[in-house]
Design brief:
Number of domains: 1
Length: 66
Amino acid sequence: MLMKFLAPATILISLPTLIASIYGTNLNLPFRGHPQAFFIAMGAARLVSLLVSLVVVAVFIRKDWL
């Protein structure tokens, strides 16, 4: 029972970390010269992380994994 809960929880925790690490790489991001570029990138990373996590939660609930 505990492992049935911990496996999906681990996946949900790792998804935002993965997305944030992609934004943290040394790539040429759009709006790079903008004075608020860091805040825009972090806001976009949070939004994408939230959306991906919500989709995964919905899939897990549908499959009765959570």
